[in-house]
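Fig. S4 source data, part A: sequence.
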Amino acid sequence: MAGSTQIEWTEATWNPVTGCSKITRGCDNCYAERFSERFRGVSEHPFENGFDLTLRPARLEQPLQWRQPKRIFVNSMSDLFHKEIPIDFIDAVFRTMEAANWHTFQLLTKRSSLMARYLKARYRKGVAPGHIWLGVSVEDAQNAVRIKHLRAAPITTRFVSFEPLLGPVGKIDLEGISWAIVGGESGPRCRPMAEEWAMEIRDQCQEAGVAFFFKQWGGIRPKAGGRVLDGREWSQYPKTPKQSDATAASI
C-alpha cells in the first residue's frame, strides 16, 4: 500500500527522497522537518538522520506495485528538485511515474527554475504526461515568480499550492494553471492567514476558471480551524485528459 496521509487533496504519499534545506520563509516551520527531527539518533529508524537529505533507492519502484489507481503526492517529505539530488536519481523517479500511468502523481517544488530546466531537457519538444501533475509552492507575493517558471515549463497539468499562505499574493497570471490550493500554516509556531488573502486567490480562480481547493485555516493542529471559506468547503480538482466531465471540477 501507498503511504497513508491526512493531506486533504491527495490519497497517498511516495517519498523516494526525504530531507531538505530551507530557502524561503515558507520553509521556516516545515512540518516535514519537525516530524523527522523527532527521530534523529534513533537507531534503525527511517529518520535516524533526521531531516538530512537522504536518497531512498529501495522506494523507487513502489508505485508500480500499487495496482489500485491513486492520487499520489510525490516527496511530501522533501523537494525532488533540490540541487543536491543527482539528475540520474530524478530520472529514475520520472521513469517510475511515466510507467505507472494508472496513478495520478502530484509533485510540488519551491525550486521552480530547476524544475523548469529539468522538464525542458527531459521532454524536449514534448510535454510531461497528463497523469503527472507538476506544481509550485508560493507563500507570498515575493515568491510568486515561481508561477512564471511553472507556466514556462512543458507540463500538461500545472498547479499552485499557496501554503502556508503568509501574505497577500496580489494579481496572479493564471493562464495555463489548472488548479490552486490554499492553506494556512499549522504547528506550534504557526503564523496566521488573513481571510482576505485566501478570498483574493479564490476570486481570481473563479474568474479564470481554475479549480480551487481550500485545504485548511491552520493553527496549532492542522485541522483546528476547519476548512470552511466564505460559508462552504472548496474541494475542486482540475479537469484533466483522464477525467470525465462528471468527475471534473464544477466551477
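Fig. S4 source data, part B ends here. The first strand starts at residue 12 and ends at 14.
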